[in-house]
Specification:
Blueprint lengths: L3 H28 L1 E12 L4 E6 L5 E6 L5 E4 L5 E6 L4 E6 L2 E5 L4 E5 L3 E8 L3 E7 L2 E6 L4 E6 H5 L5 E5 L8 E4 L2 E7 L13 E7 L5 E7 L6 E4 L2 E5 L3 E6 L7 E6 L12 E3 L6 E4 L4 E5 L7 E5 L4 E6 L6 E6 L3 E6 L4 E7 L17 E4 L2 E6 L4 E6 L5 E6 L4 E13 L1
Antiparallel strand pairs: 1-2, 1-34, 2-3, 4-5, 5-6, 6-9, 7-8, 10-11, 11-12, 12-13, 14-15, 15-16, 16-17, 18-19, 19-20, 20-21, 22-23, 23-24, 24-25, 26-27, 27-28, 28-29, 30-31, 31-32, 32-33
Keywords: Signal
Organism: Neorhizobium phenanthreniclasticum
Protein name: Zinc metallochaperone AztD
């Protein structure tokens, strides 16, 4: 399936994005000194610790003992990283020390020390953290609630948040859209065992008073969400549910059914393009789908040689996505062409068989380079995104697992 209209739109977007990224640097260099900083945040698979590493020299800047294994999520601004410990009912927050401020023709970068903030969030099985604008939404699977957390208050050492009722404990998600919140809906009509959570059956929209707006949209086994431009997408068994901002009646929800000729599978993990409006999702274990919500045929299927271990978009090079498969190969997907254009072996094979949270590599993208945790060898491998050559390794004690990269360049006064 070829999406010619999609290709033209994406190519135009890449051209615009390239100009947009280049211009601020030109003006900034004329009047200000440019500085750059990148930091890696790495959680151990087994030990309750999060490490902060200077990406430039590989030195450990800080080590924070937490309560248990932590999944890491960077905020939209990059000023904070949430360390979610689902098995211990707690979330710690780390100040990254990376602070950008936009000045129109350039952006300033302030670099300070990292710090474990004095604020923690506690509740029954916190799981999904969704960063959005100046806040993050923390969903408690067994708590029947989601908290919308103000990041500015966090950085001042205060916990300011608004709580959303999720009707019943379930493994779900909540996403803000203007003054509305999009919340997953559990099946409240079936009985579950004490240790089980009910399945998700749809998505509802609630207003600032917590009242539902319109009808629930069906989305069986809702899992995975992403934002691209002004759109939010959710993975469902029927297809991908896309939500657009609306007028007085609230957001508009549209299901994009999977094509009839697709193999039987569905999407449960989604990534959203930043410089271009598109989504990239899994389609089962060994395929991906490119999604253009505005196209007549919104889906394009990408075949992988083996099962996917992790995948990430490149925020600075909007054409590229990187996929690590269980054979240890790193693949470069050109999202404009819809093709795998390069690959290289970066680790030993890591089978997808076994527990979903067994120690396997994870990817992060920083400064034109791909950082890959290799828990079997206590390393973070650094691969040049253009040449796919491993340029160095960073030794990390234990089993480095979850990883996020925060940083960039800006004017320094």
């Amino acid at each position: 399936m070829r999406l010619s209209l999609t290709r033209n739109r994406l190519l135009s977007a890449v051209a615009v994005a390239s100009l947009t990224f280049a211009a601020p640097g030109v003006f900034a260099d004329e009047a200000h000194e440019t500085t750059e900083a990148w930091r890696l945040f790495v959680a151990d698979h087994t030990n309750p610790v999060v490490r902060v590493i200077d990406f430039t020299d590989g030195k450990e800047l800080a080590r924070y003992d937490v309560n248990g294994y932590a999944a890491l999520t960077a905020s939209a601004s990059g000023q904070t990283v949430f360390a979610t410990q689902s098995d211990h009912d707690i979330v710690h927050v780390i100040k990254t020390g990376i602070d950008f401020s936009d000045h129109g023709d350039h952006r300033d970068l302030e670099v300070s020390d990292v710090a474990l903030l004095p604020i923690t969030f506690e509740g029954k099985r916190p799981f999904h953290v969704v960063p959005h604008d100046d806040h993050a939404i923390l969903f408690y699977d067994r708590g029947g609630k989601a908290d919308i957390i103000d990041e500015a208050a966090l950085l001042e050492g205060k916990a300011e948040f608004k709580t959303i009722d999720t009707t019943k404990p379930h493994h779900g998600v909540a996403v803000t859209m203007g003054r509305y919140v999009l919340v997953s809906v559990p099946n409240t009509e079936i009985e579950t065992k004490p240790d089980e959570l009910p399945p998700r059956i749809g998505l509802r929209v609630v207003d600032e008073k917590g009242e539902q707006v319109g009808e629930m949209a069906t989305c069986t086994d809702l899992h995975g969400e992403a934002t691209s431009a002004r759109l939010v997408a959710f993975g469902c068994k029927e297809g991908v549910l896309v939500v657009r901002p609306g007028g007085l009646d609230g957001p508009k929800l549209t299901m994009l059914p999977y094509p009839a000729d697709f193999p039987k599978a569905h999407t449960g993990t989604l990534l959203g393009g930043k410089a271009m409006q598109f989504f990239l999702g899994n389609y089962g274990d060994d395929k991906l789908v490119l999604i253009d919500a505005d196209a007549e045929q919104p889906y394009e299927l990408i075949e992988l040689p083996t099962r996917r271990v992790d995948f990430q978009l490149d925020p600075a090079e909007p054409r590229n996505a990187y996929i690590l498969t269980e054979d240890g190969d790193l693949h470069v997907l050109n999202v404009v062409k819809g093709e795998i254009v390069n690959k290289v072996k970066v680790t030993e094979p890591y089978s997808k068989d076994g527990h979903w949270r067994d120690p396997r590599p994870r990817l992060a993208v920083a400064d034109g380079q791909i950082a890959i945790t290799d828990p079997r060898h206590s390393l973070v491998r650094v691969v040049d995104a253009e040449t796919l050559r491993e340029t160095r390794t960073i030794a990390v004690e234990g089993q480095p697992f979850s990883i996020v990269a925060v940083g960039g360049s800006g004017a320094s006064h």
